[in-house]
Write a structure and sequence with these properties.
Elements lengths: L7 H26 L6 E6 L2 H11 L5 H7 L4 E7 L2 H12 L4 E8 L12 E9 L10 E11 H14 L7 H29 L2
Parallel strand pairs: 2-5
Antiparallel strand pairs: 1-2, 3-4, 4-5
Helix pairs in contact: 5-6
Length: about 200
Amino acid sequence: MSIYGTYEGTLEYVSKNLVYRLEQYNTIYEKEHGARLFEHLSSRIKSDASMREKCRRKGFPENEYSALHDMHDSIGIRIVCSFVNDIFKNVEKIKEFPDVVVVKEKDYVRHAKPNGYRSYHMILSVEVPYPDVLGMTPGHYFVEVQLRTIAMDSWAALEHQMKYKKTLENQDLIVSELKRVADELASCDISMQTIHELINS
């Protein structure tokens, strides 16, 4: 049986509903301004195997409570934007959702990780008209949202490949090169933003 038990269907509802509303405001914004707030998004529910592995790694029991209360990433959404400023516009739009509370935020866009990683992370608590793992109705479910530019997303995909390679020659060189490229891409993102603003000024 899935680690999410009887709540798996509700996770699907939360994910699809949130994605629908994100795409809806993006469509409305495009009609009003002639430009999209994000280029595309992807969503996933963490697989049973991945969630069980994370619970073990974090020292939690492999059960519904751990997966839905102690872990905050059973639902994940990634939003990819053209420009850096669009990341922050999307953050503000998400905060306007009446049934959403931001539990945690980490701005790795303005404050990159030492390895060069850049992205904006949010943990949301979303209220739904169904019970949660605490037995409360309406229930609350956690959603992890990551917002990035296209350049940041490409870099993160490459860094992810390196992280999960079992054996890797020249790892120090690759890490150094990834950091250099991350800084170059960040500079390009700033230049793209500047050009975009000049065009639209």
